[in-house]
Amino acid sequence: MDFFETIMFPFKWLVSIIMVGFHEGLSTIGMPEASGWTWTLSIIGLVLVIRAALIPVFVKQIKAQRGMQLLQPDLKKLQDKYKGKTDQLSRQAMAQEQMAMYKKHGTNPFSACLPMLIQMPFFFALFTVLSGISGAAAAGNGIGAMSHEQVVQFDDSTIFGATLSASLLHGGDGNQTAVWILSILMILAMTASQFITQKQIMAKNMSEEAMASPFMRQQKMMLYILPIVFGVGGINFPIGVLIYWTTTNLWTMGQQFFVIRRMPTPGSPAAKALAERRAAKGLPALSILSGKKDEDADAAAAAAAVAQAKGQRTQPQRKNRKKK
Questions:
Q1: Neighbours of 230 (CB within 10 A)
Q2: Digits of tens for pLDDT over the chain (324 positions)?
Q3: Fewer CB within 10 A of the end CB, N or C, for the chain?
Q4: CB-based contacts of 131: which residues, under 8 Å, 6+ apart?
């Protein structure tokens, strides 16, 4: 067992236990054990459990990204302050001021990346388990918590006449036409969902400053390159893996739609649309970091109203004259 397999071993056991649990649960309620639909639902259930468990991590990532976006004007001023200064003392001073700024606002660049790093072992484990089914079935082995019998069941199971272990490039058992059609449809669904997710982020959830930055040009290139890369790579993926990728991409698309609508990036078209919707309903503004009622904004509005009331001229009242 090499170093990578040693690291992935507990994650493979975790994801295989979840998938086996779904399979046994579905079998208990009457679905056939060897049916491809039973294993397909087990794969979908596996993805849903993992992604649901990672929701708190995703929320933390969003808040970290919002915090970094709020710091961009201050970071730009700091960069302008030390622009052209390449000596060691200036670079150290700039780094110290940056760290002090991050500490003051409770964020840092790595906090936005850490949640993604936490997710990666689970996704690698999912891919490893689903991609190794055919090899384990031929070798007479199990995978993680899956017994050899369950591995063979998965390897032989079909949906629409195509085996879950077959791929577009390498084929497999069962109806080859069904394998081609289903693989192509799954690849199209996988790449389309990824493209739509990135497209809605760029169109609705990026501020004007981000849209005007040089980094935006790279983002536009990646918008088209990544779906092509996954689409080309998808011809090597077994149908079971394509089901996983399509399911997780659909989850990501729905999750991003919710975030863009409820927790948009400050200054983005989605943030303006949210403010307009709440204003039309007479609701208070939301904090861009938490998505909850912005107490500071309400307090500032109340203070402004009091100051305005005090600043208004008091109209003197006319005294009633006594009649003679």
A1: 17
A2: 577 778 888 888 998 999 999 999 999 999 998 888 999 999 999 889 988 888 887 777 777 766 766 676 777 788 788 887 878 888 888 888 888 887 777 676 666 666 667 777 877 887 788 778 878 888 888 888 898 999 888 888 889 888 888 888 776 666 788 888 998 999 999 889 888 888 887 778 776 666 665 556 666 777 778 778 877 888 888 888 889 889 988 998 898 888 888 878 777 788 888 888 888 888 776 655 545 555 444 444 444 444 444 454 444 555 555 544
A3: C
A4: 237, 238, 241
> Can you read off the two tokens belonging to residue 222?
């990646």
The H or E element that residue 159 is part of is strand 158-159
C-alpha of 167 from chain center: 27
Alpha-carbon distance of 20 to 16, in angstroms, equals 6
E strand or H helix that includes residue 283:
none
Burial 243-282 (b: 16+ CB within 10 A, else e): bbbbbbbbbbbeebbebbeebbbebbbbbeebeeeeeeee
**Overall pTM > 0.85:** no
C-alpha 167/C-alpha 180 separation (Å) is: 8
Which structure tokens are listed for 125?
A: 């484990």
Q: How far is CA 98 from CA 36, 103, 227, 314, in A?
A: 54, 9, 36, 50
